[in-house]
Amino acid sequence: MKLSLYLGTYKRVKVFIHWTFSLLLLWIIISNLRANTPVEDILWTLLFVFGLFFCVILHEFGHALAAQKYGINTKDITLLPIGGLARLEKIPEEPKQELWVAIAGPLVNIGIFVILSIILAFTGYDLERLENLNINGSTMILYLASANLILALFNMLPAFPMDGGRVLRAFLAIRLPRAKATRIAGSIGQLLAIAFVFYGLFNNPILVLIGIFIFLGAAAEVNHTSQASFLKGFKVKDAMMLKFQILAYDAPLSKATEKLLDSQATHFVVVKDDVAVGTLSKDQIIQGLKEGGSNLKIEEVTDFNPFKIETEESLEEAWRNMMTKQRKVAFVIENGHFLGILDQENITEFILVKSALSND
Ligand SMILES: [Zn+2]
Fold first, then answer.
1. What does UniProt list as catalytic (predicted)?
2. Distance, CA of 239 to chain centre
3. 128 part of the active site
4. Is 343 annotated as a binding residue?
């Protein structure tokens, strides 16, 4: 988030604006100056862009606040030139909940459209003015109203993982297993994404970006959902490692490199007086070698605050928590005692085994 400007927080949701947004503004200014557009008109155009993106933020808040109703937090909302992005802690698995969270965004735009249309009905408008693409004080509301309608309709296209695609997945998931529903919605999303890219190549470069974004997003989410489906029903104890490499906290890093080269392990348990006190990863070892050489004490690079999970915890839940907290390894605890470790490689292998055994 370093390259984003913090705008503020509302209802515990932080709002950022991505630096590339300034490129969009710059592009509007430069292309208009080259076309000899009067400065006043450029200012109106910029005002329209800010107004439009304010509506995009409201759209994202539609998702975030609907998710909050189901106890799901939103880490932040980031405004990009191609639209907004609300990072929800997770997507609700209950189809009805996903449906409401997905539809809440476009509904906000419909709401804005209705309000602006009422204002227009009272103040009078001329639809033909939309065609000359001349944004100024008298057409601003008309443009914002149309833009909100377009935003709502565009987002409701069934291009998973866009809102309409999520609505589609939710409907499919009422009758089908979630992984299968996601596969179908994902394929439709990717087909539409390809159409966006082709159409965008000749008409609108932003559509190309959106198409690529959708294509990759669909692939990632289909992959993620099918992996999660293999973890369903299992507990942490089913995948955890009881055999692991240990290192003394006061040994030099050279001991760690020895074990690293001598085994397949990528995570080590650091012990002090026979008690497991922390974890050391391959990356931390390499980092330590770079900074302090092989005589550096292991405790200097050890993570003494390891992520902890319980043996009886659901494996899927543990996997998701480790990913959202960006932890690659966790201490597995039973009745308050350290029992073993679980790392990402472990889980990946578990998924590979289960998927090989399934006939799907
Ligand atoms: Zn949305």
1. 60
2. 26
3. no
4. no
